[in-house]
Amino acid sequence: MFLLNQNPNYRKPLDPVDAETLGVKAAEEVERYLAHRENHAPTPLHSLPALAVELGVGAIHIKDEGSRLGLGSFKALGGSYTVIRLVLEEAGRQLGRIVDIAELRTPEVRAIASGMTFACATDGNHGRSVAQGAQLVGARAAIFVHSGVSDERVAAIARFGAQMIRAEGTYDDSVAEAARVAAEKGWIVVSDTSWPGYERIPGLVMQGYTAMVREALRQLPERPTHVFVQAGVGGVAAAVAGHLALSLGNLRPTFVVVDPARAACLFETARAGHPVKIDHGEPTVMAMLECYEPSLVAWRVLSRVADAFMTVDEEDAIAAMNCLARPVGNDPAIVAGESGGAGLAGLIRAAADPRIRVALNLDEASRVFVINTEGATDPERYTELVGMRPDAVATNAEGADA
């Protein structure tokens, strides 16, 4: 399914709060925070010239978030950054002065952090980031996971010392349960989705993602003309689209939001013209994107700066994983998890549809940017879907680089 943005707010300026959250100054501050992380390094940007020829576009560049801060996904930028911000703010309140990131490991700050517990719901990646951030500052983490989260992903979060809590139902149900329990116990909810009255913290999570866009803009040889980004509740899509709009202005690229067909809450929200909660159906293989209600903050941004919304099917996502694992020509091999290649899957589907190509002005001169949002965060599932272990794909990639 494909839909151009028909919202009355389309192309209107961002809400001032969102403009401040996602602007250049905020992104520079995120990068300053990252500079204090011991394992921080910019993630690579790869060119896929052979695939570009195959799809009939001028260039394809993919930002590979599979190595981000040792967590395997872009989510590492959001949850941990927010936890650090909130700890420093609380330290500032208790100490009666501004506390900067350089003081994060001081005894005074760690003593304050030790009395704080951060909670969230997760499909896997966001919870890992919150747990890592809590461990880094000496705080506690309580992570809620629904029944669809694999044991392997649960173990990957628990290794950071987090308390793991299983919740019945879907991701959205686990969000509600995390909020309920946190309210009872006085925990701080660090959610990547927002609801009425709860917007600042999800905004900080989105703000963390802008560092990825800053890196990409420095790495790209030319400004992109088209960007395809996958969406769950919409946080990363809104962060990327919003920052590009604010930093590039009238030169910003055409931005396409890509949803799983089985969890297309943003597509249906765009079609309705307002946030909608869709029915839970058969689970999607794109587990990190299996969300049935959009983030209100993300929708507020995307209603203004997204140009189109589309869906991809299960086989599209699996084909994109395999396309990146077994590249055409001399393109590099890339390990992309089930959700990681969904943006590329959107491009592949759009490029094959003459109607969509015309609607997006997608042609042989187009320079397309996509993001591999996660590596093989569940290696066994990856092996099942690709027929190769992720380490074997990575070895092939290293061999090609050599």
UniProtKB/TrEMBL annotation:
<dbReference type="GO" id="GO:0008838">
    <property type="term" value="F:diaminopropionate ammonia-lyase activity"/>
</dbReference>
<dbReference type="GO" id="GO:0030170">
    <property type="term" value="F:pyridoxal phosphate binding"/>
</dbReference>
<keyword id="KW-0456">Lyase</keyword>
<protein>
    <submittedName>
        <fullName>Diaminopropionate ammonia-lyase</fullName>
        <ecNumber>4.3.1.15</ecNumber>
    </submittedName>
</protein>
<dbReference type="InterPro" id="IPR001926">
    <property type="entry name" value="TrpB-like_PALP"/>
</dbReference>
<dbReference type="InterPro" id="IPR010081">
    <property type="entry name" value="DiNH2opropionate_NH3_lyase"/>
</dbReference>
<dbReference type="Pfam" id="PF00291">
    <property type="entry name" value="PALP"/>
</dbReference>
<dbReference type="InterPro" id="IPR036052">
    <property type="entry name" value="TrpB-like_PALP_sf"/>
</dbReference>
<feature type="domain" description="Tryptophan synthase beta chain-like PALP">
    <location>
        <begin position="40"/>
        <end position="371"/>
    </location>
</feature>
<keyword id="KW-0663">Pyridoxal phosphate</keyword>
